[in-house]
Design a protein that fits this description.
single chain; about 270 residues; alpha+beta; Arc Repressor Mutant, subunit A; Endonuclease, Chain A; 2 domains; 10-stranded mixed β-sheet; two-stranded antiparallel ribbon; 9 helices; about 45% helix; TrmB family transcriptional regulator; WH_DNA-bd_sf; TrmB-like
């Protein structure tokens, strides 16, 4: 019994709640007096505890004199506890990530992000913080599905421009009102030293290979770069104005000289 009570408390019940539910399962159904005798929970506490379990859907009651309490099936009961714990875990991580974002934005203009969950949370935060416009550089449109809902929703509120340096491959449908662009050559220096070396292939540094996947720009205030380092996905968030403003000018210049893709996936004149 002690192991059972310990497991139930691990799933989120208080000890007396665990003892009351376990006692009800053991006797099948019972009154407050019978639950007290089977659980060793003080009788003055039994009524409040069992009524609390009723309110949470863990116990049903036949009102009468006295009331008779019946536990839900253990499998249903444990599933509900597990689901509540999982949702609490998801909510806790989300809230902690928001706290982390707030703290970092106050103290550091550049920080690194690791893990798919954290990368998604940071992209969500960046998109939610857009006040004027959002620009996105996407190296492979076939992968943008992971952010499709975010970008489509954002395009209903703000202008969203998506630049596709690798071309229009993989485009099956538009993303809400977002505009899609394929860059063209417009400056020899930019084409050779920036576009070809940074956007169109891996960069080798000290034995590591860096490959750009996405660049998100919220207005000209926040830049989030998703990249792989030796095949491991990471991201960096930058709020330093000297960097974000320059990045925004680069992207704006490419968009201004790009060919726009229409809803059918064809290029159209700007």
């Amino acid at each position: 019994m002690d192991d059972l009570i310990r497991n139930l408390t691990t799933l989120g019940l208080k000890e007396y709640e665990a003892r009351v539910y376990a006692a009800l399962v053991g006797i099948g159904e019972g009154t407050a007096r019978q639950i007290h005798e089977a659980s060793d929970v003080p009788r003055p506490r039994v009524y409040d505890i069992v009524e609390g379990l009723v309110n949470r859907g863990f116990v049903s009651v036949q009102r009468g004199n006295p009331h008779v309490y019946i536990p839900v099936e253990p499998a249903v009961f444990v599933h509900q506890l597990k689901s509540s714990m999982e949702q609490a875990a998801v909510d806790a991580v989300h809230d902690l990530e928001n706290l982390s974002l707030d703290a970092r934005s106050k103290h550091s203009p550049i920080w690194y992000v690791q893990g798919e969950w954290s990368i998604l949370r940071h992209v969500e935060s960046l998109v939610a913080g857009v006040s004027r416009e959002l620009a996105v550089v996407c190296m492979d449109y076939e992968r943008i599905g992971e952010f499709a809902r975010l970008l489509a929703d954002a395009s209903a509120v703000h202008p969203v421009s998506i630049l596709l340096p690798s071309g229009k491959r993989g485009i099956g449908r538009m993303l809400g009102n977002a505009s899609l662009h394929v860059p063209t050559a417009f400056c020899d220096f930019f084409q050779e030293h920036i576009f070809q070396k940074i956007y169109q292939g891996p960069i080798a540094v000290d034995g590591s290979s860096f490959l750009l996947e996405y660049l998100f720009l919220a207005d000209d205030r926040v830049c989030l770069i998703v990249y792989t380092q030796n095949g491991v996905r990471n991201a960096v968030v930058i709020t330093l104005p000297f960097i974000t403003c320059v990045q925004k000018q680069y992207v704006n210049k490419m968009i201004a000289h790009a060919e726009r893709i229409d809803a059918a996936g064809k290029k159209e004149a700007e």
